[in-house]
Amino acid sequence: MPEHPGTPLLEVEGLGIRFGGLHAVRDVTASLPPERITAIIGPNGAGKSTFFNLISGFYAPTSGRIRFQGEDITRLKTHQVVGRGIARTFQTTTIYKELSVLDNAMIGHRVRTRSGLWDALLRTGREQRDERESRDGAMRALERVGLAGQAGRPAGALTQEGQKRVGIAMALSSDPRLLLLDEPAAGMNPEETVNLMGLIRELVGGGLTVALVEHKMSLVMGLADEIVVLHHGQKIAQGTPGEVSRDPAVIEAYLGGHAHGGQMGQPGAAGSGASGTEEGAHA
Ligand SMILES: Nc1ncnc2c1ncn2[C@@H]1O[C@H](COP(=O)(O)OP(=O)(O)OP(=O)(O)O)[C@@H](O)[C@H]1O
Ligand SMILES: [Mg+2]
Q1: How buried is residue 99: exposed, middle or buried, by Cβ count under 10 Å (0-12/13-18/19+)?
Q2: Is position 66 within any domain?
Q3: Atom in ligand 1 nearest the alpha carbon of residue 20
Q4: Which of 14, 102, 111, 199 is most buried (most C-beta within 10 Å)?
Q5: Where is the region Disordered (predicted)?
Q6: Is residue 145 part of a domain?
Q7: Ligand 1: lining residues by beta carbon, under 6 Å
């Protein structure tokens, strides 16, 4: 599945959505290169989750266009977007703690493909026909996140990190080409954050393209190939971690209204110390 070099997997052009008088996302033009990690950052309320909601078809944009693998997907519904190869995780984890890890991943597969949540939970006739396909897709997803050996355990018995992996497996079960992760490291300690970074790198090494929203700068700076910065719904910068962390508009956005968000400019070493190594350091 090699791409033509330079051909973006996803392109958005002039993308925007208004909620009443509020322009939550405004005139954003950006693209995601294939098999790379793009981070979407910005202060609270910048429009990051809304941006994901637009790409994944949860919200219909009020302006602009979205193209995925060359196809215009602007008006597609969520399940159609999933069918094209885009999956996401949510800012708040939505796993079913009483159910097994495998059942969670299977629900992920079903919800994301044909049937609704109730079909999935109640195992209707249609669901039974899809059972095998779902199970296979779910097991493959669990293998990718390192949870195949825990498939039978209740999801709630896993560590915080394990539960995050379940959430990622739920998204991977539809076998996407593009995975959108909304604050995957929220609530994780530094060691778990490093493990998560390793997992994301592995997935990308296997051909996946990842876009992630994250406040933890250690993760963003240590992982992202490219960073898009949103502020008040608008894109104010895009570039490599080094470029973005030196950008005056970005520094202003973080320091201006958010004294505690002032973690820019320390690639790979900010905050948690999760990736405090010399790896990748440049003069
Ligand atoms: N469905 C909605 N209806 C009305 N306003 C909304 C809706 N969804 C988001 N907003 C508003 O849009 C703006 C952007 O919200 P969004 O959740 O995208 O921010 P964010 O960058 O993800 O922030 P955070 O870092 O806190 O998660 C906020 O002002 C929010 O209140
Ligand atoms: Mg958000």
Answers
A1: middle
A2: no
A3: 4
A4: 102
A5: 261-283
A6: yes
A7: 19, 22, 24, 42, 44-50, 91
Contact 219/185 with Cβ under 8 angstroms? yes
Give residue 140 CA to ligand 2 midpoint distance, Å: 29
Asked if residue 153 is part of any domain, the answer here is: yes
Counting from 1 in the atom list of ligand 1, the atom nearest the Cα of 19 is: 4
Q: Whose alpha carbon is nearest atom 18 of ligand 1?
A: 47
For the chain, how many structural domains are there in total? 1
CA of 214 to the centre of ligand 1 (A): 15
Q: Which atom of ligand 1 is nearest to the CA of 47?
A: 18
* Prediction pTM value: 0.85
Q: Which ligand is nearest to the CA of 46?
A: 1
d(CA 201, CA 203) in angstroms, rounded, equals 5
Q: pLDDT tens string for the chain (283 positions)? A: 444 556 899 999 999 999 999 999 999 999 999 999 999 999 999 999 999 999 999 999 999 999 999 999 999 999 899 989 999 998 776 789 999 999 999 887 766 555 556 666 666 666 666 778 888 889 999 999 999 999 999 999 999 889 999 999 999 998 899 999 999 998 889 999 999 999 999 999 999 999 999 999 999 999 999 999 999 999 999 999 999 999 999 999 887 754 444 444 333 333 333 333 333 333 2
Boundaries of domain holding 103: 86-175
Structure tokens at 125: 């006739």
The SS3 call for residue 175 is: coil
Phi, psi dihedral angles at 152 (to 5 degrees)? -90, -10
Closest of 210, 4, 201 to residue 87, by C-alpha: 210
**Residue 207 alpha carbon to ligand 1 centre in Å:** 31
List beta partners, residue 179: 87, 210
CATH number, position 152: 3.40.50.300
